[in-house]
């Protein structure tokens, strides 16, 4: 159109030109128009216009009425681009077809680091001993990654298989340690052989506490969930007047540490098991964590600068990290006031546990002084 208009403007002068000159002039004007159109098309491509050029796809040699527009993966339009295309071309979707990719993709710039590995170390017990505190404290270390919730794989979900278990683990780099904690493992007879079948090199951490105090703490937690629970004495004794303790009650049975440890030593050597004192974890968290780091072969990075003692809760909390607005303490279920138990019942339980405690001290080579 532009070429025709330009030629009409020059037409009055054409009577002065020979036929040959007119032909050359026409060719020259056509060339100029071609250059102008080609330049405009190139500029549109450089501007990032993602409008696809559609071609008829005839896979079976038959004619098809619809058009299929195929773009390379790195040039497929986003939802914003698709909206722009629809605005420019209001034809029905059967005419203009943009292939969908229903598989979710990671955000631009996001890269998944590391792999999910079976744990190198497991906190296997004991309930109400301080396992959550140890997990939260040790995971401050940059070389430790831990599953946040109790997996109960080796005692409740073993039939799901190791790949299911691996899927619960966080991603870790080659230099990092993968951990999990499930306190019921220590008192479950089937757990030691199952962990050994996974790896005999697994490092085990057991957080122990005065078994009498631990039993009262266990009862207090259960009572908060079941208010109509019988009294502590009714559950702890078959006959309190005779001092006969009911070892079938789980809260009592857990405190028989020596008996449970004998089961573990059939599958793991003692140097693969580290015992954390629940009492010292409260009075000296940095000291206990230093020993845990040594046991795991880690540099001592978690130190006393990370802790402060919360007098309201009665146990240490983590100091405010630079990236957080407040200190980090364990949940409301930690540090609750224990139920008051009759003094005679406590003394009877101490007499009951004493021989088991002495045997446990001898087995691990350490006196925890639970008196």
Description of the molecule:
The chain is an alpha/beta fold and about 375 residues long. It has two domains: about 60 residues, no CATH class; about 250 residues, P-loop containing nucleotide triphosphate hydrolases (Rossmann fold, 3-Layer(aba) Sandwich), CATH 3.40.50.300. About 40% of the residues lie in helices and about 10% in strands. The chain contains 13 helices and eleven strands. The chain has a five-stranded parallel β-sheet with strand order 3-5-2-6-9. Pfam families: Sulfotransfer_1. It is found in: Endomembrane system; Golgi apparatus membrane. Keywords: Disulfide bond, Glycoprotein, Golgi apparatus, Membrane, Signal-anchor, Transferase, Transmembrane, Transmembrane helix. One of its GO terms (molecular function) is [heparan sulfate]-glucosamine 3-sulfotransferase activity. Its EC number is 2.8.2.-.
SSE layout and pairing:
Blueprint (H helix, E strand, L loop, with lengths): L1 H9 L8 H28 L32 H10 L26 E2 L4 E5 L5 H8 L5 E3 L15 H6 L3 E2 L4 E5 L9 H8 L4 E6 L2 H15 L6 H5 E3 L4 E2 L4 H4 L3 H8 L8 E5 H6 L1 H11 L11 E4 L4 E4 L24 H22 L7
Parallel strand pairs: 2-5, 2-6, 3-5, 6-9
Antiparallel strand pairs: 1-4, 7-8, 10-11
Helix pairs in contact: 1-2, 10-13
